[in-house]
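Sequence in, structure out. Go.
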Amino acid sequence: MPNPLIIPGAEPFLIPGSRTGCLLVHGLTGTPREMRWMGEDLALRGYSVLAPRLAGHATCPDDLPRTCWRDWLAAVEDGFHQLRSCCDHVFILGLSLGGVLTLSAASYLPISGAVAMSTPYDMPSDWRLNFLPIFKRLIPHVAKGPADWRNPEAARDHLEYPDYPTAAITQLKDLLAEMRTCLPSVQVPVLLIHSRLDQGVAPENMPRIYERLGTQDKHMMWVENSGHVIVREPDRQIVFQAAHEFIQRCLQGADRPVNQAAPDPASP
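Output:
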């Protein structure tokens, strides 16, 4: 038997539920697994949940440099249309790169709301970014910085590529420019969530996104005891509850029924 193409445990997942759908989008070099606990929580609250795999992810690191940001956005579009075929309302919830894709998609897809978590507004200040077209040929991979996990169990269980392909950083830079252009066109309700301790994406990114959003229905929320991957960190239940309440507020405005809250399905 040939080896599976997708890393075991990193597969996309679908949990059928009500006619309100939640599309969960993972981060750069990550996998749908990092959204699993959030997906299980939302499913217990009655929502239909779909977590797709972004192109080039969850297979092998050499696959990622062969993709571009349009491939990643196309995966989000595909997920939206899959959920829209069986749901009356679709919300997109994304982490990090997933948040960038969420806000970009929110500028043109007919979604009911967007939740962007740990989302960058721009690349960090680094002179080397000006030379990415050269570096991606000379230095194909860039080491990741120190992890900022506050949940050791989640850190051990996390599935991701070990480094960043330089070509993927180039694509992220281009995608961020696209997102910044799109932000004034976002007219759906938006919830932004960020940890003050995030060392992967600096906390000052969230207010910059907030200021550029075109919608008047926009909200920022801080958590205090988590690293970058807030959906798997100690504050995760606060994040899950906030996302649920945001969705319910949007649905109530559309005369939709209120689902009941559910306990945290994730282990401590």
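Check: Residues 183 and 212 are 6 Å apart (CA to CA). Residues 255-268 have pLDDT under 50 and may be disordered.
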